[in-house]
Structures are given as structure tokens and as C-alpha cells.
Amino acid sequence: MKKCSELDAAKQQLVEELEAARLIALETKSSAAMVSASIGKAKILGLISEKTKKEEKNEEVKIQPVLVQFITEVKDKAEE
User: Fold this and answer.
1) Which of 3, 15, 49, 66 counts the most CB atoms within 10 A of its CB?
2) Does residue 1 belong to any structural domain of this protein?
3) Tally of domains in the chain
């Protein structure tokens, strides 16, 4: 088993690698890769915890409606 300081160093290294990947994704305008790297960092830092299947089975499912509004630029036909 790794010592606490070794574990912290390993976490720090992973966070740094994910940050480097996120910056590359930013440069290449790959939003999915940026989100993936950010989520990876959050999981390593304990900001996001994954539920086990046992926990999921015991939870009541609550469905709530969500309104999503897409905003797009519309060109006026008179401008064309």
C-alpha cells in the first residue's frame, strides 16, 4: 500500500497531466476533451464521487423536466 505522501504525489501528477491535456484540448478547440479532463481532475480531487451500483439501487428515481434553450444566429433574408 502506498504511503499518504506517495498517494498525494501520484494524485498531483495525474492532475497536472490532465491539466496539460485540457490546455491542449483548449488550443485545438475540442470541448469534449476539455470537459473530460476537467471531470477527471474533479474526480481525483474528490469533488465528484461515483456511486456504487448498490447505492444506485437504493435511490428513488426523481424525474424533473429540464428546459434547454438553444440560441443561434439567424440571418435576415434582406441582408443576403
Assistant:
1) 15
2) yes
3) 1
The torsion angle over the Cα atoms of residues 34, 17, 45 and 58, rounded to 10 degrees, is: 60
Mean pLDDT of all residues in the chain? Answer: 79
- For residue 69, being part of any structural domain is answered with no
Q: What is the pLDDT of residues 26-56, one digit of tens each?
A: 999 999 999 999 999 989 888 888 776 666 6
Query: Which region among 3-12, 21-30, 55-64 has the lowest average model confidence (pLDDT)?
Result: 55-64
Grid-cell match 483548449, residue found? 26
Residue-number span of the structural domain to which 31 is assigned:
1-49
Is-contact 43 15, C-beta < 8 A? no
CA 73 to chain centre: 27
